[in-house]
Amino acid sequence: MTTTYQHWIGGSWRAPLAGHYPVINPATEEVVGHAPEASGDEVAEAVAAARVAYEEWSRTDPRERAAVLDRIADLLTERGKELVPLLQAETGATLRVASTMQVPTAADRFRRYARGAVEPDVIPLAPQPVKASPLAPGGLISAAAVRRPVGVVGCITSYNFPIVNLAGKAAPALAMGNTVVAKPAPQDPLGCLELGPLLQEAGLPDGVFNVITGSGAAAGEALVGHPDVDMISFTGSTAVGRRIAQSAGETMKRTLMELGGKGAAIVLEDADETVITSAIRAVGTTWSFHSGQICTAPTRALVHRSLYEKVVAGLRRYAGALTVGDPVDNSTIVGPVISAAQRDRVETYIAGAREEGARVVVGGERPDVKTGFYVAPTLLADVAPDMTVAQEELFGPVVVAIPFEDEDEAVRIANGTPYGLYDYVFGSDAGRAWALAARLRSGNVGINTVQRHPETPFGGFKESGVGRDGGSFGLHAYSELQSVVWPS
Ligand code: NAD
Predict the structure, then answer these.
(1) pTM for this structure?
(2) Is 286 buried (19+), middle (13-18) or exposed (0-12) by CB count in 10 A?
(3) I want to staple 334 with a disulfide (CB 3.0 to 4.6 A). Which of 150, 305, 324, 413 is the partner?
(4) Does the CB atom of residue 158 touch ligand 1 within 6 A?
């Protein structure tokens, strides 16, 4: 039995005018459920509901907003177990990833921004003596900068972690007093639709959070083009981000852009055995964590020539030991990628790399499985920095290994793509790694770790994005600064 979903608009389900489309399980190729296909009218209806709800929600006592967000986190935690099978079926995530990194992380985000709702929103400024002028009498003039909500926020998200990505936008936006129209990715929007009634049950007023879906670009385009949307918060590819930024510019919408990446992990010649092992494990997450469908994945291993073959051999052993298969099976480490189209895309990159002269150290062939969209963990060595496979984001379980001679060359290669989202430095001298970080044109740098710090600003340099998510920085992204001035 599969469920046929409807849009979540103004606090109730709305049957779509344009029908439904099937959501496919990437492991079994079976239909998980049917998602509604939004027309422009339904997008407009959702925006109108969010606009009406804005008046009250934006003026709600922040402590009340905090209480609602806390209850959302509670409910998500309580219902987590029920949501996992659906999320796993539509995303193809392994059991470990689906149960530990989807619902709990989404709940954490609502919990974090429950605290965010009551963070200070007034920045006092020192009074200034100002001379009389034809404009106004002089005196000691006081002022404050105050954070106000932006308004109606359109949240358009990518497929890799559907409810986590959406929670990362909706939670800070709602905490700040904005209202939301969410447009999740077409491949796996069902868990996001389930959030509608859950947020309502937690006490969120009707219309504050709306969800519309569609199989193509049209629903997102209608949202970006709608004149009554004040901000677009987007997570997705750089190509789509560019189109959204152009369209959003027409109505001067605020944008937060979390885009693609092509992370470099630089392994310096001073790396000792422990650091080399950490580097191999870190790069290995490109295979072992959600089939490499991670924007921050260290997909380029840049290794000092003196350690190159040793690291390549270590990576080969790591990749060779990973179990590929059904994500529902507890022993599976590498599940499918999201769709046949995504698998074909990654395969095309691997074929292109072979043609350009890369050495396939491991993987490179389609795994022998009956159903599902699988790509074997693949390591490509002797890759030149300008090869397509070293320049473009694949979003799959593929690592390229590139040797370098000295630090200058490592920096040149690391910075030599249009992206700048997340780079990593592995070395035994923390001071040297810190200094190297300053030369990387990247929004985030990990030193000897791929672990995250939850309060850091997260975002990209260059074509990896504009603006910052994360911690209080994420909260501020959903605010406008208003200056208030008065005579002392
Ligand atoms: P995508 O760009 O194909 O789609 C993202 C969203 O945009 C989807 O909801 C899609 O329906 C919508 N969309 C497509 N065309 C549109 C248009 N013209 N107007 C409005 N909306 C439109 O990305 P994807 O394949 O879902 O996700 C993979 C990409 O997301 C990768 O590039 C990855 O690096 C990136 N990503 C970035 C971050 C980050 O925080 N920087 C996090 C996760 C994923």
Answers:
(1) 0.98
(2) buried
(3) 324
(4) yes
